[in-house]
Design a protein that fits this description.
α7 crosses α9 and α12 packs across α13. This protein starts with 6 loop residues before the first strand and ends in a 17-residue tail after the last helix. The strands form 3 sheets. It has an 8-stranded mixed sheet with strand order 3-2-1-4-5-6-7-8, sandwiched between helices. It has an 8-stranded mixed sheet with strand order 13-12-11-14-15-16-17-18, sandwiched between helices. It folds into 4 domains: about 180 residues, 3-Layer(aba) Sandwich (Rossmann fold); about 90 residues, N-(1-d-carboxylethyl)-l-norvaline Dehydrogenase, domain 2 (Orthogonal Bundle); about 180 residues, Rossmann fold (3-Layer(aba) Sandwich); about 90 residues, N-(1-d-carboxylethyl)-l-norvaline Dehydrogenase, domain 2 (Orthogonal Bundle). The protein is of the alpha/beta class.
Length: about 600
């Protein structure tokens, strides 16, 4: 029979502890909250009052329920008040010696059947549990902040945790209206182990001046649909907290990708902790404020003071989904578009594909019939490269093979007029290789649209060491005119989005490969705990495992980071022909 946790102790009434207390009390649990002194308790009461008042104002809690919730919470400054608790959840600062001291004292005070849980986000539950005489009754219960809102709770079992304790805690978490995932005891658990490697990588990109903070954050928001960019998220979490989590992960994993970026330590030493101090990667209008204000690092428009080239006629090379999407985007915006295909049949089919997409937009009320007809009338299908001679901008969108792309640029170099901007949509190949195939490398730039180009707002503007400033400014101006969000970066494998996204996806595959957690739990952890639109395995199956493997190999060959080496499981699935949704099987089976 599942044991009932009717009275629950909370040790530590900071933001997280107060949030856990509120969640428990709102579901009818009697809570005993303990902190070091009356000042700390008053601060915790303030958190609870503010949060429940906000819930009432937002219509999520009645005044009567708010009063009943707060009445279920009692307060004490001594752990002795927890003698009768069925479950005690520790939420003190992330220091192993402090947690060990709390658990040793609780072990002396509480009855032999009381279950102990730590809300640690990265420390070893095993190491905490050995400071008690009941390590079998010690688990991790990692809630996510803000606790009243976020549904995920990671339930961490050690090698000695009793199975019935895990079962009972999972049932309790479900009774709170939360989503539990059960995992083993390793640094970062699921969500933080995957999230913080990605955040650390973003800091290293910023540290090396590869891209601005604004462009890094915009890239992940508009390119992946993430609710926040990595640097803004670090400011919200707190740079000191992030450093502690990364440092703990590194000492367990010895993975260089978990070693905190030196910039984090420098910012912490300077007191730049993020929102809580009023300044981190961004500057805020006060401590704990979410409102970003301009500062000395706020960039001016990239093209300010730089002349741009006139673009009226645009060539697009290719007939695939990306090419036809780009054709549609330009044609709808009023540009004359020349669509070059390898045969007149392919050209006609590509124009028909654009027409079908435009028709769909009309049926959904997003485009008028007149605008559809006008857009189609602006598209000229051609077969010869020479028909691109009078284009001001030519966008190559052919197969992601370097030899094919170089051949296209050699042909463009021969036929295009002087001053024409030549762009490649490659997602991971070196833009400079395309530029080197021409006698005009200064005119070549990367314009990495995201699929479907008609919908996705992001375009990565990739500048090589040879690209002229006016070409970069022209590319940016065109993107803005198309209603896109341009972000600027250098010519490195993966640019911004893929360079940040695919190591994270690879880490998820390695986690699955190690039997640490199942795919469903990993996906749920990232969607529920981190508010991501898709879990890593859902996304890999959509992108295609073969495409993902190719990108990961490119990243590994460029950076030679051991952590970027593609997971063997991914290699095996691709060899077996399990490529994701397009073949009916990938990490999941879509054929049933």
């Amino acid at each position: 029979m599942t044991r009932q946790f009717n009275t629950v102790g909370i040790v530590g009434l900071g933001t997280m502890g107060a949030g856990i207390a509120e969640v428990l009390a709102r579901t009818g649990v009697t809570v005993v909250a303990v902190d070091v002194d009356e000042t700390a308790l008053d601060r915790g009461r303030g958190h609870l009052t503010h949060s429940t008042d906000r819930a009432v104002a937002g219509g999520k809690l009645s005044s009567a329920d708010r009063d009943a919730t707060l009445a279920r919470i009692s307060y004490a400054t001594s752990l002795d008040a927890l003698a009768g608790a069925d479950l005690v959840i520790e939420a003190v600062p992330e220091r192993i010696e402090l947690k060990a001291e709390v658990f040793a004292e609780l072990d002396r005070i509480c009855g032999p059947d009381t279950v102990f849980a730590s809300n640690t986000s990265s420390l070893s539950i095993t190491e905490i549990g050995v400071h008690t005489g009941r390590p079998g009754k010690v688990v991790g219960m990692h809630f996510f902040n803000p606790t009243p809102v976020l549904k995920l709770v990671e339930v961490i079992r050690t090698v000695v945790t009793e199975p019935d304790v895990v079962t009972d805690v999972v049932a309790f978490v479900e009774g709170l209206g939360k989503t539990p995932v059960v995992i083993g005891d390793r640094a970062g658990f699921i969500a933080n182990a995957l999230l913080f490697g990605y955040l650390n990588h973003a800091v290293r990109m910023y540290e090396s001046r590869y891209a601005t903070r604004e462009d890094l954050d915009a890239a992940m928001r508009y390119g992946c649909g993430y609710p926040m960019g990595p640097l803004a998220l670090l400011d919200l979490i707190g740079l000191d907290t992030a450093y502690e989590i990364l440092d703990t992960m590194y000492h367990q994993s010895r993975n260089r990708l978990h070693a905190p970026a030196p910039l984090l330590k420098q910012m912490i030493t300077a007191g730049l902790l993020g929102r809580k101090s009023g300044r981190g990667f961004y500057t805020y209008d006060g401590p704990d404020s979410p409102v970003v204000v301009p500062d000395v690092q706020t960039p001016v428009a990239a093209e300010e003071g730089v002349p741009t080239r006139e673009v009226q006629r645009v060539g697009v090379i290719g007939t695939g989904t990306m090419a036809t999407g780009i054709v549609e985007v330009f044609a709808k915006r009023g540009y004359d578009v020349v669509l070059r295909a390898r045969s007149s049949e392919k050209a006609s089919a590509a124009v028909a594909k654009v027409g079908k997409s435009l028709e769909k937009a009309v049926s959904r009320g997003k485009l008028s019939a007149d605008d559809r007809d006008a857009a189609l009338a602006r598209i000229t299908p051609v077969v010869e490269f020479s028909d691109l001679a009078d284009c001001d901008l030519v966008v190559e969108a052919v197969a992601e093979e370097l030899s094919v792309k170089k051949a296209v640029f050699e042909a463009l170099d021969e036929v295009c007029k002087p001053g024409a901007v030549l762009a490649t949509t490659t997602s991971s190949l070196p833009v400079i290789e395309c530029a080197a195939a021409t006698a005009r490398p200064g005119d070549v730039v990367g314009l990495h649209f995201f699929n479907p180009a008609q919908v996705m707002k992001l375009v990565e503007v990739v500048e090589t060491i040879s690209t002229s400033a006016d070409v970069v400014a022209t590319a940016r101006r065109v993107c803005l005119d198309l209603g896109k969000v341009p972000v600027h970066c250098g010519d490195r494998a993966g640019f911004i989005v893929n360079a940040l996204l695919f190591p994270y996806l690879n880490d998820a595959v390695k986690m699955l490969e190690a039997h640490y957690a199942v795919a469903d739990d990993i996906d749920n952890a990232m969607k529920v705990g981190c508010s991501l639109p898709m879990g890593p395995f859902e996304l890999l199956d959509v992108v295609g495992l073969d495409v993902s493997l190719a990108i990961e190999r490119t990243l590994y060959l460029e950076f030679r980071e051991a952590g970027f080496a593609p997971a063997p499981l991914l290699e095996h699935l691709v060899k077996a022909g399990r490529l994701g949704r397009k073949t009916g099987k990938g990490f999941r089976d879509y054929s049933v």
